[in-house]
Amino acid sequence: MEQLPLPEPQNLQRLLIAPPVMPWRDFADWIQISQDAVEMWIRRGYLPTVKIGRFRLVNVALFTQQLLNDEQEV
């Protein structure tokens, strides 16, 4: 598996402190993936989301927990 380069030090702090939920477009920018890709991941159910009013938010807390659980199962 190809290892991704480490983020710049100024961006590392931003990656380590995540809000529990965030708008999906902001999530795409945060992880530096295209908004089209993140939108497709949401449609396919790859990312946990919650709808609050008319806004679709990525549940970052649940997604992080799922990633940590998957890592432990390997």
List the helices and strands and how they pair.
Elements: H1 9-16, E1 21-23, H2 24-31, H3 35-43, E2 49-52, E3 55-59, H4 60-73
Antiparallel strand pairs: 1-3, 2-3
Helix pairs in contact: 2-3
Describe this structure in words.
By secondary structure, this protein is an alpha+beta fold. The chain has one domain (20-73). It is built from four helices and three strands; from the N terminus they run αβααββα. It has helices spanning 9-16, 24-31, 35-43, 60-73, and strands spanning 21-23, 49-52, 55-59. The chain has a three-stranded antiparallel sheet with strand order 1-3-2. The two termini are 14 Å apart.
Briefly summarize what is shown.
This protein is of the alpha+beta class and 74 residues long. 53% of the residues lie in helices and 16% in strands. A hairpin with a 2-residue loop joins strand 2 (49-52) and strand 3.
